[in-house]
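tool=predict chain=A
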Amino acid sequence: MRRGQVVVALTLALAGVPGLVAAHGVHALGEVEASAERPADVWEWLFGRVEAAAHVRIDQSAGYRYIESDGLPDHPTGNFPNRNNPNRIQSIAHTYRVPLNPTRNGRAQDIGHAAFGVAINGVPFDPATAEFWNRNRRWNYEAIGGPYNLGLDASNAHVQPNGAYHYHGIPEGLLESGNPKRAPMLIGWAADGFPIYAPWGYRNSDDASSGMVALRSGFRLKDGSRPGGSSGPGGRYDGSFASDFEFDADHGDLDRCNGRVGVTPEHPQGGYYYVLTADFPFIPRCWVGNGDRSFQKGSGGGEAGMPQGGPGGGNRDRGGRRGPPAEAIAACQGRSEGVSCEIDAPRGRIDGSCRRVRSGDVACVPAGGPPPQR
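tool=predict ok
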């Protein structure tokens, strides 16, 4: 379900819920105007999340592609904050720059803790974590398959302390917008400018009629055990750390940077491209070209600077307004304003009606709010 379509106005059926009365006493739930900001707060209480219309703009100028976004995904997310990720998704201004005609170097460049690339929806691919064993940067815990639950959602993403939503693996929600098993699906660009594709590709990389297969990484777990004592965490190599893996050129379909040369719908004559895989490294950990500085941490994804003239130049709406969850949108799809609706939320069933909200959409806006916390 796409955001920014039809949304609903709901009336909370909280009165008469014994647990709420016992815990909070009796509170009057005043009417909330449909144009107010309050409905988003109520949706957040009901679902543990709110959603907003994502903004992304892609321009080309002076040999570069510029991707400007507010960092909000265009698909449903998990509940943030959650037990294992205490951060709330916020609108974050990103501006990334990649070359339109990238070139490969003779030697791969480790991405370190930079963002590897950016998805077509403006959300960064950022595979490394900030968790290390004994503060030793050699032993960097993995977000996927590691010993710690970092609160990833179904799109293998979670939220940084500054509110930035980012992917650690295959963005499943983004893939739902296409059919990646029918033909290679472009999902973004790496910092060096080469395209990024979903996990499936042609069986024969140079033959678009050879059928589609899930492409395999060339990495595998090392044999034996890690060093112990002050040198390492000890224990068998089990995938907890990025250093638990080694590259074996005979093991998979892709090179050390999780890429290969082949044809795609966007590049029928062939070219180099990266692939996100279901297994380590999930998102590549190196570039074959030169990664642009706009992907370095601390730059805010903004050092490159969006061109102000030419195609697509100029200002755009970066309001980042919050909106209803997908469940609320679905409840009113195809219905007119004022029509009754109901929806099941984690905190119970809600009865309401469809109204127009501040963003201009017809939305599921609660007519009352949750009891204040004591």
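The longest strand covers residues 56-61. Residues 1-41, 48-52, 300-322, 369-374 have pLDDT under 50 and may be disordered.
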